[in-house]
């Protein structure tokens, strides 16, 4: 039932947009609605309506209140699908995953090992006006702390972050359930995450 409702909703949107779309794009969009997997449908629409492959990635002007780890994570995300990088003293080891089905600059799911401390966080292009946010990543919801002037929403540091990160390593995707619209409903593709975080885990000793 949900899959049929999803297709009907997208077909209604495509009908409204049809006068604005080229015939070939419209045909490809219709094919996206036939994908059996929700994650595959999101990725299909993401590829079709996202930033064209031959267009430069959007450049965000650096601002003083955006932390170095935020800048490093978004610079890494703009480079492409490579997920892990050692930024040295700037932000340590960083693993970044971009949210599917959103326009750049996209929210990020990040795992960081800096000064031998592990931290799991969500990063957003625009700051949140909150101190704490209730978040669930497919498990029991918990309070995440808003850091770095609202641009970083942290699940915690040390053992709490490691426990949550380990739980994600065996999943193919994750839906974010959150108490704020900017985070609620975000979807991340976790395929290959276990391999990507291997050097970070070695660096932080877990």
Automatic annotation (TrEMBL):
InterPro entries: T6SS-assoc_VCA0118 (IPR017738). This is Type VI secretion system-associated protein. It comes from the Bacteria. It comes from Marinobacter lutaoensis.
């Amino acid at each position: 039932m949900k899959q049929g409702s999803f297709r009907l909703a997208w077909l209604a949107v495509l009908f409204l947009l049809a006068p604005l779309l080229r015939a070939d794009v419209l045909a490809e969009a219709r094919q996206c609605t036939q994908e059996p997997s929700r994650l595959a449908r999101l990725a299909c629409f993401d590829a079709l309506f996202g930033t064209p492959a031959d267009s430069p990635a959007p450049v965000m002007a650096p601002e003083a209140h955006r932390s170095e780890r935020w800048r490093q994570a978004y610079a890494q995300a703009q480079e492409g699908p490579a997920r892990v990088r050692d930024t040295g003293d700037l932000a340590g080891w960083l693993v970044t995953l971009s949210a599917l089905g959103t326009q750049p600059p996209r929210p990020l799911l990040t795992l960081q090992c800096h000064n031998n401390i592990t931290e799991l966080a969500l990063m957003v292009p625009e700051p949140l006006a909150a101190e704490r946010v209730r978040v669930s990543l497919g498990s029991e919801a918990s309070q995440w702390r808003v850091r770095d002037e609202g641009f970083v929403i942290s699940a915690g540091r040390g053992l709490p972050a490691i426990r949550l990160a380990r739980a994600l390593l065996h999943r193919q995707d994750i839906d974010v359930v959150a108490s704020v619209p900017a985070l609620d409903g975000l979807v991340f593709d976790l395929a290959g995450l276990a391999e990507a975080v291997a050097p970070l885990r070695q660096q932080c000793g877990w």
